């Protein structure tokens, strides 16, 4: 079931989104060689709690941290670790969300640590731009497949592949609501988008093949071929006036 949000609920979601975005930016500001992923997590945890919100990932399905931090060939759900030092040239995907007054915000961004290779930068740029291509399609009357198609048709001609095992999702009082929002698809297919829907669009784009698998810790998802992956996400409200990014400062 898709839960539509009224104006009042969207205002609350804007607050949750803002805190989530500010926490992400705070984490991103500290991405640099030498810091550990555990320290980054601690910084974001403190930020969210100080804002009067609740870290939504912490304890979700048993996840042990505030943020998912996935480095290089790690796609999503990386577990922050006090022993994992970021190296110069790493690309660091941070996914973090907060609950405020009962509503969720969810967002992700891939940050470079120091100077990164041209290949890494190109992957990050294309993944970020594909997110905004997807957001452009999040308008009433379009269908869910239009979003995925926009993402897919942006990255594939550039030689990248779309992760298919994981998809975006509705957001609201639950972090993961209906509908699924794949980053691939056929234009004009899938459920119709209507005002009041709130969705997280989150392309996970691989430098090499689309295949991924989980590590034995049960969480961290990595590329099968060991190549890089990037991840960008915003929580979006579909309104009569067009897409509104709720995870905005
Ligand atoms: Mg998400």
Helix and strand arrangement:
Blueprint lengths: L6 H23 L7 H14 L3 E2 L11 E5 L2 E3 L14 E10 L2 E10 L5 H19 L7 H12 L5 E2 L5 E3 L6 E5 L16 E4 L2 E3 L5 E3 L6 E3 L5 E3 L2 E6 L2 E4 L4
Helix pairs in contact: 1-2, 3-4
Bound molecules: magnesium ion.
Magnesium ion binds next to loops.
How would you describe this protein?
The chain is an alpha+beta fold. The protein contains four helices and 15 strands. The chain has helices at 7-29, 37-50, 118-136, 144-155; strands at 54-55, 67-71, 74-76, 91-100, 103-112, 161-162, 168-170, 177-181, 198-201, 204-206, 212-214, 221-223, 229-231, 234-239, 242-245. Helix 1 (7-29) packs antiparallel against helix 2 (37-50) and helix 3 runs antiparallel to helix 4. The two termini are 30 Å apart. The model has no long low-confidence stretch (mean pLDDT 98). Bound molecules: magnesium ion. Magnesium ion binds next to loops.
List keywords for this structure.
249 residues, alpha+beta, Creatine Amidinohydrolase, five-stranded antiparallel beta sheet, four-stranded antiparallel beta sheet, 27% helix, globular, binds magnesium ion
């Amino acid at each position: 079931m898709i839960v539509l949000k009224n104006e009042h609920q969207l205002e609350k979601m804007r607050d949750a989104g803002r805190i989530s975005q500010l926490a992400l930016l705070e984490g991103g500001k500290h991405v640099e060689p030498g810091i550990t992923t555990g320290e980054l997590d601690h910084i974001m945890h403190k930020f969210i709690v100080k804002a009067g919100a609740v870290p939504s990932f912490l304890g979700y399905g048993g996840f042990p941290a505030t943020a998912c931090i996935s480095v290089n060939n790690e796609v999503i759900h990386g577990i922050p670790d006090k022993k994992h030092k970021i190296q110069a040239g790493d690309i660091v995907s941070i996914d973090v969300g907060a609950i405020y007054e009962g509503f969720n915000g969810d967002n992700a961004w891939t940050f470079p640590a120091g100077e990164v290779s041209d290949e890494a930068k190109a992957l990050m740029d294309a993944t970020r731009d594909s997110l905004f291509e997807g957001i452009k399609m999040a308008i009433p009357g379009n269908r869910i497949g239009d979003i995925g198609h926009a993402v897919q048709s942006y990255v594939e001609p550039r030689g990248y592949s779309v992760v298919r095992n994981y998809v975006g999702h509705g957001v609201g009082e639950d972090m993961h609501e209906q509908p699924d929002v794949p980053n691939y698809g056929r234009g004009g297919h899938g459920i119709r988008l209507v005002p009041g829907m709130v969705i997280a669009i989150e392309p996970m784009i691989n430098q090499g093949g689309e295949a991924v698998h989980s590590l034995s810790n049960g969480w961290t998802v990595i590329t099968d071929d060991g190549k890089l992956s990037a991840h960008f996400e915003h929580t979006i409200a579909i309104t009569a006036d067009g897409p509104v990014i709720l995870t905005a400062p």
